[in-house]
Specification:
This protein has 386 residues and is an alpha+beta fold. It contains twelve helices and eight strands. The strands form three sheets. A three-stranded antiparallel β-sheet has the order 3-2-5. Strands 6-7-8 form a three-stranded antiparallel β-sheet. A two-stranded antiparallel sheet has the order 1-4.
């Protein structure tokens, strides 16, 4: 029967010893602990030596448990991407490598530092440029910790120190740059200058930080003049587009122009060579005529004259008629004479033998001298008639 069932002697069976007439609730925790330790102290009878032995064993068990708990509490794990900075009594002791490690609890303190991940640090603000214009700049730096000891001990708050150095570098570069350079084509130069300036600031502090990259996330003029700057940027983009189109046209037209130049040079060279060869041929021809002219100057002169007149009249449509000999003027079929002349000209052109060759053959023939004499006599008679 339970101690609180109806009809039972609940007062005698009450574990909380509430023997009063009223329900006073459970006793205090201190009273329960005192009763428990009292029972342990009385265990083993009334012999005092046996009680002392039991107390010593209890202390030993408690001590062993405390040692086990202390040893187990010292184990910790360092991740693959981290290195642990071990502080012994607040002073740097060593670096913990990745894996399961053990430390002296309450003596050593381990600060894990990630040395592989790329961290980001941003900065933004309105700044005054060299030409006294306001620009809003937003930049972001990417860095990595390569020395955990320096990262923990070089400065009090490394992340805040890096942020302040980053702000200082940006404001210095923007303050020494023109607004157009920061907003348009000079952004890459400004970015490189900020990177160099930041490296120069953090190097003396030995923060154990390696700057990976630095980028412009945004650079814009104030809201009041943004529309004008957008127009200016659009004009610059159009300028670059026109330049590229002009360069493309130049690349397309230049080979054609060079081809025409080369063709003209070749034509000029061919004309030059042809003129030289023709002149040399004329010189050779006159050199061949010179001995004949020396032998018979009058005949040679008359022959050259007739050949020249023949070449001139062969290219004209006029017909010369000698009427001084007397007699009636006979009707000449001029149309048929012209057709006959054109036919004979075409025949001469088709013939491979030129007039000069025929003349040379006639002059080299045995009867050449008499023929020339007859011609000279006929010419002389014609001149007498004239």
């Amino acid at each position: 029967m339970a101690w609180n069932e109806p009809g039972g002697n609940d007062k005698k069976n009450d574990p909380w010893k509430n023997r009063g007439s009223k329900d006073q609730g459970p006793p205090d925790l201190d009273d329960v602990l005192k009763n428990l330790f009292g029972k342990f102290g009385k265990g083993g009878g009334g012999s005092g030596g046996t009680g002392a032995s039991f107390t010593g064993k209890g202390i030993g068990i408690v001590a062993i448990l405390a040692i086990v708990i202390y040893v187990l509490s010292g184990f910790y794990t360092i991740k693959e991407a981290e290195r642990g900075v071990i502080l012994r009594f607040g002073e740097f002791h060593s670096l913990a490598q990745p894996g399961l490690q053990w430390k002296l609890t309450f003596i050593d303190q381990v600060l894990p530092v990630n040395v592989q991940s790329i961290r980001n640090q941003g900065s933004s603000g309105s700044m005054l440029t060299e030409d006294e214009n306001m620009v809003s700049v937003e930049m972001e730096v990417q860095y990595r910790v390569f020395d955990p000891q320096q990262w923990v001990f070089a400065v009090v708050n490394p992340e805040q120190s890096l942020s302040q150095a980053f702000d200082s570098a940006i404001r210095y570069v923007v303050g020494h740059s023109r607004m157009d350079d920061v907003l348009t084509e000079g952004r890459e130069v400004a970015r490189q200058r900020v990177l160099e300036e930041l490296q120069g600031i953090i190097t003396p502090y030995n923060m154990g930080v390696d700057i990976i990259d630095l980028n412009f996330t945004n650079a814009r003029p104030p809201e009041q003049v943004r529309a004008a700057f957008d127009d200016a940027i659009a004009a610059q983009e159009d300028e670059q587009r026109f330049i590229r189109e002009a360069e493309a046209y130049q690349r397309a037209i230049e080979p054609e122009a060079r081809g025409r130049v080369n063709r003209m040079n070749e034509e000029a060279q061919a004309y030059k060579e042809r003129s030289i060869l023709e002149a040399q041929g004329e010189v050779a021809r006159f050199e061949e005529l010179l001995p004949q002219y020396v032998a018979a100057p009058e005949v040679t002169r008359q022959r050259i004259y007739l050949e020249t007149i023949e070449s001139v009249f062969s290219n004209t449509s006029k017909i010369m008629v000698d009427t001084e000999g007397g007699g009636n003027i006979m009707y000449l079929p001029l149309d048929k004479i012209m057709d006959q002349r054109d036919t004979s000209r075409q025949t001469i052109n088709r013939n491979s033998t030129s007039f000069e060759e025929i003349r040379d053959r006639v002059n080299n023939s045995p009867n050449a001298a008499p023929m020339l004499n007859n011609n000279s006599r006929n010419d002389a008679g014609r001149q007498g008639r004239n």
